[in-house]
Design goal:
Layout lengths: L2 E5 L5 H13 L12 H6 L7 E8 L2 E9 L6 H7 L6 E9 L8 H15 L4 E6 L4 H5 L6 E7 L5 E8 L2
Parallel strand pairs: 4-5
Antiparallel strand pairs: 1-2, 2-3, 3-4, 5-7, 6-7
Length: 167
């Protein structure tokens, strides 16, 4: 069956939660994914103040997702780390694909959707982070972005940071 891509409607929230739990539960290294804070589950569909949520579907089944974080509060630490505090910055994140659907370009396509939205919204930069040992994330989520540095984030997570100037 063909994979289709679209914004995830709030009516699919249960599928989003199931996807998150399934993928995170199967990770070889739990440090690959920074866990969601409890309040984030209630904000997932707030495009103006939190993030855009894009999904990959096989029929009606959600098989992958990625978020474009637009909240400047969410990216404040990255802006400071990269010395781009005066710019409008968004972050690619929350990239999750069911294991049986990987290696089909799903995360790459979701990344393109996020990038197009970032440009439409007039962001100056898009950033992404990945655990240093998570090679899949480097190749998909950070595709088209330049490696900037490796650092330890304030939450203690070690991450490679990637960035692209948009405007």
């Amino acid at each position: 069956m063909e994979i289709t891509y679209k914004k995830i409607p709030q009516s699919d929230k249960e599928q989003v939660l199931c996807l998150i739990n399934t993928v995170i539960g199967r990770l070889n290294n739990p440090d690959f994914f920074i866990p969601y804070e409890p309040w984030e589950y209630d904000s997932m569909f707030d495009e103006e103040n939190y993030a855009y949520l894009f999904g990959a579907y096989e029929g009606d089944k959600l098989v992958g997702m990625m978020q474009l974080y637009v909240s400047q509060d969410m990216v404040a630490d990255l802006k400071q780390e990269l010395n781009i505090g005066e710019f409008n910055v968004c972050e690619l994140g929350g990239a999750l694909v069911l294991p049986e659907y990987r290696s089909r370009g799903i995360a790459i396509e979701l990344g393109y959707m996020c990038g197009a939205t970032a440009q439409e919204r007039g962001f100056d930069y898009v950033v992404a982070t990945a655990h240093p040992d998570n090679r899949s994330s480097w190749k998909t989520t950070a595709r088209g972005l330049d490696f900037v540095k490796e650092t330890t984030l304030p939450n203690g997570s070690v991450r490679k940071i990637y960035m692209k100037k948009l405007n």
